[in-house]
Amino acid sequence: MSKPLSYRTFFKGNIKLASMYIMTLVIAILILGITKVILASTNNEMEVSIHQAQMITKLQIASSDIDNSSKHANSEIVEKVKALNSVGSVLPTKELRLHYRYFIGDGDQNNYLLRKEDTLKLLDGLGVSYNKNDLSNEGNNKAFISERVVKNAGLVQGDKLNESIDVTIDKTFVSEFPISVIPTEIPDASDEYIIIPKPGKLVQMNSEIQNILNSDFELIDYKDVKSSIAMMQVSADTTFFIVMIIITFACSITTGITTYIHYYNRRKEIGILKAVGYSDKKIVLRITKEVCVSTISALIISLLLIVIAIWVLNVFIAETNGFVHFKFDYSLFSNVIIIPIFMGVFSLVPTWIMLRTMDKITLIQRGY
Q: To which H or E segment does residue 219 belong?
């Protein structure tokens, strides 16, 4: 026999109302969760840039308008950099930056023109797994390119890397970094250099290089990349916070009003229970259980749907477009849990107040 005010009795007799509450909560959590996942994907793309800056540092001439004496001075500084014990390799390069699409926003695809032997040093420094035989010879104008870039730009082998650049796609390698390398004859004196630290010496190397640079050079190191990306991440987090506040309060207030009306319409049932000896505490606990069971059920359903949505996004969007995979992490749970908590509070508090302010005779009379 079902107990009065049991969740089973409530659900069987109020399928439409219970389902509406659960679906409202599911939709709210799902919207918030997917929004968080999508915004986090941009952060994940930025983290790739930070990861690259943890492996290599870039040194470049600050201005192209320099005279011969400045060039000579620059050459001396490069030699000093090479002599540092913390430096593994100094690779003269030319860098071509092309557009790279994110799911939201965009970034840069880095194309490095390097000597063939320096290309191997760069790929090794970035921890890329590749086949050395896939590299073309210098001067062939063939790019050895990350699969991510090929997918992102919709390219195939033999296509031009860019319409304005006479470089074609050759072989590919698997890497998180959206880069390509183009074996090319590069002189020792260049406008740009890639500096690879010795293992565990990145921070020391960057500090030592900063101490010997003059105004002709600028160093793009881990701190610079981290600082510039941090500002973009703050913007994304602010956007998510605003979305979360709007969704949370809209759904909480709406569901709270609906729940209050529901229990107000059940005041006859509640009055009879009071009349036969049920205490206010026991009735409130039963009602709290109803709301909690619905809320927890909705939360579980929502999280399962978010996991499925992430899988769909990865298979049909991330994989086909070369994006960093969408992820489900614990921070997502801590973000979405606020919705069921708020909705539960907005549902229960007005109902508790109503029960405590109406005596059993009034509840029975008004129930007829």
A: strand 217-220
